[in-house]
Amino acid sequence: MERNAIRLFLAVVTAVLVLAAPATGGGQTTPSAPLRAQPPLSVRLYVIDCGTLHIADLGRFQLKKEEVTTTDLSVACFLVVHPKGTLIWDTGAVPDAAWKPTGSPVTQHIVLPDSQERDVTVVKSLKAQLAELGYSPSDITYLALSHYHYDHTANANEFAAATWLVRQVERDAMLAEKPPGTTQPSTYSALRHSKTLILKNDEHDVFGDGTVVIKSAPGHTPGHQILYLKLAKTGGVVLSGDLYHYPEERVLDRVPTFEFNPEQTRATRVAIEAFLKKTGAQLWIQHDFNGNAKLKKSPNFYE
Ligand SMILES: [Zn+2]
């Protein structure tokens, strides 16, 4: 009798908790923070604001000031939520631990190990934006970085419990005794001990159903990659990594001066443009300030 009473009590408690769970449909509501998110029925893509990068020297992109509409670059992070798990794609330019959100934009001055300097403006931490969706970094199943530059790796250490999806050449360069310039190794050093899946093929189907596919796109860095998403309502979307930074690079056919291999970048661009044509997918240039400004931001989502 007593045991049945306990069971009944537990059943009631469970029912109350389920009823109290936040509404996550429609993408319009903001779930309250500490509750865990439930897996959706179809793939969702959240665009997370990881700041704005101010570029002083356009020459590095083989562009002139009069050729671009803005010199600013967006810094975007993306969370993909699939019924079978989650994937974080790129982790920002400023580590959450390095600044305190005030609700107003905060500009951080970054000095890279090779003495290059950058200014990045941030408003919300990545962790806070994930918490708003009901996730903490330790809940995330997979981590994939488009590439190793500092403006994509800032919070990578937070995702050390995830399975890291990376190409061998990229991992080797990142963890070498002397990592390449424009990296901030202290932000991703914990990945050395992460469970790691080395991607060997041109395409890696993350959840096995063709909806979330990492494609090899070398040139910018040796193991640079892009993300192809097949969304039920939105259709195909390709997250560019740094295949281009400014949309004008695409229109005017300019290749930055700091590519690992510019010839490889050109060949990759041709291949990806053909892929876009074949699939009809949209290309979202992650650093395109104006393009990014038009996207729905988390907690809203694309599906
Ligand atoms: Zn970048």
Q: Into which percentage range does the β-strand content fall?
A: 15-25%
Helix content: 10-25%
- Describe the biggest sheet? 8 strands, mixed
Give the total of beta strands.
13
Report the order of strands and helices: HEEEEEHEHEHEEEEEHHEH
What characteristic shape results from the CA principal axes? globular
- The chain-level mean pLDDT equals 91
Q: What is the CA-CA span between the terminal residues?
A: 48 Å
| SSE-based structural type | alpha/beta
Q: Which sequence of strands runs across the widest sheet?
A: 4-5-1-2-3-6-7-8
Q: Total number of helical segments?
A: 7
What is the oligomeric state here? single chain
Spatial extent as radius of gyration: 20 Å
List segments where confidence is low: pLDDT < 50 over at least 5 consecutive residues.
Answer: 1-33
Distinct small molecules bound, one entry per kind = zinc ion
Detailed description of the structure:
The protein is 22% helix and 23% strand. The protein has seven helices and 13 strands. The structure holds zinc ion (ZN).
Topology (elements, then pairings):
Elements: H1 2-20, E1 44-54, E2 73-82, E3 85-89, E4 106-111, E5 117-122, H2 126-132, E6 142-144, H3 150-153, E7 163-166, H4 168-174, E8 196-198, E9 203-205, E10 212-216, E11 225-231, E12 235-239, H5 247-252, H6 262-279, E13 282-284, H7 289-293
Parallel strand pairs: 3-6, 6-7, 7-8, 12-13
Antiparallel strand pairs: 1-2, 1-5, 2-3, 4-5, 9-10, 10-11, 11-12
Residues 149, 151-152, 242, 287 line the site of zinc ion.
